[in-house]
Amino acid sequence: MMNLPNVDLDLLERPTLDKVQAKELQHPPRILLLYGSNRDRSYSRLALQEAGRVLEYFGAEVKIFHPKGLPLPEDAD
Questions:
Q1: Whole-angstrom distance, CA of residue 31 vs CA of residue 60
Q2: What does the alpha-carbon distance between residue 55 and residue 53 come to, in Å, rounded to a whole number?
């Protein structure tokens, strides 16, 4: 057994096949996408938007968090 002195093993429940089997979803998968650049021509934002379109094609409900107005290092005003 592994030595885990900082973990209460009574609270650490091992996964079993019964516990991890997916149940019938009541809604499509919900995915929040984040990017961290405020630049007008942000390649990470463009790639993220393309990923969002692909996820929506596969049936996911996608929301994109826009960091506009948040204090970021090297913020492009």
A1: 7
A2: 5
Looking at residue 31, the DSSP 8-state letter turns out to be E
Is 59 contained in some domain?
yes
Has this prediction a pTM greater than 0.70? Answer: no
List the structure tokens of 67. 């960091």
Phi/psi at 17 (5° precision): -60, -35
Please give the backbone phi and psi of residue 6, each rounded to the nearest 5 degrees, phi first.
-90, 5
Domain span holding position 51: 33-69
Distance between CA atoms of residues 32 and 8, nearest Å = 32
What domain count does the chain have? Answer: 1
| Helices and strands in the chain: count of H runs, count of E runs | 2, 2
Give the Cβ contact number of residue 46 at 10 Å: 12
Q: What is the pLDDT of residues 44-53, one digit of tens each?
A: 999 999 999 9
